[in-house]
Write a structure and sequence with these properties.
Layout: E1 4-8, E2 14-15, E3 19-20, E4 25-31, H1 34-44, E5 50-54, E6 62-66, H2 73-77, E7 85-90, H3 95-103, E8 106-111, H4 117-128, H5 136-154, H6 166-176, H7 181-188, H8 192-206, H9 211-220
Parallel strand pairs: 4-6, 6-7, 7-8
Antiparallel strand pairs: 1-4, 1-5, 2-3
Helix pairs in contact: 6-8, 6-9, 7-8
């Protein structure tokens, strides 16, 4: 399978529709059907600031994929572009298909009927700048799915959406405030041994070196 790579060249200008264009963003193009891929390449070729480059020598920062079957998306994307931000051109997905797309890196979903050259270019710019976009119906599906995940999976196991338990989050927050083990234990009505065990399990699971590293990690990733 070939991946076409496009680079958004730094024009040093501000586009009236898209704002300031990102510079040198590698853009990959994927489609299982050669005809679909050709159509996508044709839509992007010649657009200001985009230069399509064939080959698999570069990791794309943004991946534009078109598919008739979203269930095949993980196989289409594969490992070669797993760190790319995904712009997906497809028919509106069902809830299960939407989650498969999100797991593959979905940032912007462009319905097939809206996939004009300008719309694709805006989607690439949005994805590169971290601005996600889903049509209202799909956004509603995702929010409902997150609510079910929280209710049925996270809460029964004392987990939060960050992947930490509520007491791990509390311990990290108190550490970040400068509390020592005894103060944290008193605040949470735990023994000092329990606090130490919570920290040990947390640092071991996340591969962190010590308490300072744990607090730094939590702050850097927005966990507390």
């Amino acid at each position: 399978m070939s991946i076409g790579i496009a680079r958004m060249e730094d024009t040093g200008t501000t586009h009236p529709t898209f704002g300031r264009l990102p510079s040198a963003v590698p853009v990959g193009v994927l489609a299982a059907d050669p005809l679909l891929r050709s159509g996508l390449v044709s839509a992007l070729r010649g657009q200001p600031g985009i230069r399509l480059v064939e080959g698999e020598l570069h990791q794309p920062g943004v991946l534009v994929a078109v598919t008739d079957d979203i269930r095949t998306l993980p196989y289409l994307v594969g490992d070669s572009a797993r760190h790319a931000r995904l712009v997906l051109v497809a028919e509106p997905p069902q809830p299960g298909e939407l989650w498969a797309a999100i797991e593959s890196g979905l940032v912007v979903l462009v319905p097939r009927k809206e996939a004009t050259a300008e719309r694709l270019r805006k989607a690439i710019t949005d994805a590169h700048q971290g601005r996600g976009h889903l049509p209202p119906e799909q956004l509603g599906q995702m929010l409902q799915g997150l609510a079910r995940l929280h209710r049925d999976v996270l809460v029964p196991h004392d987990l939060t959406p960050t992947g930490l338990s509520s007491r791990e989050t509390t311990v990290l927050r108190l550490l970040a405030e400068g509390r020592d083990t005894a103060e944290i234990a008193a605040e949470m009505a735990y023994s000092e041994r329990t606090v130490k065990n919570i920290l040990h399990k947390l640092t071991t699971r996340l591969g962190l070196r010590n308490r300072t590293h744990a607090v730094s990690y939590a702050l850097r990733h927005g966990l507390i």
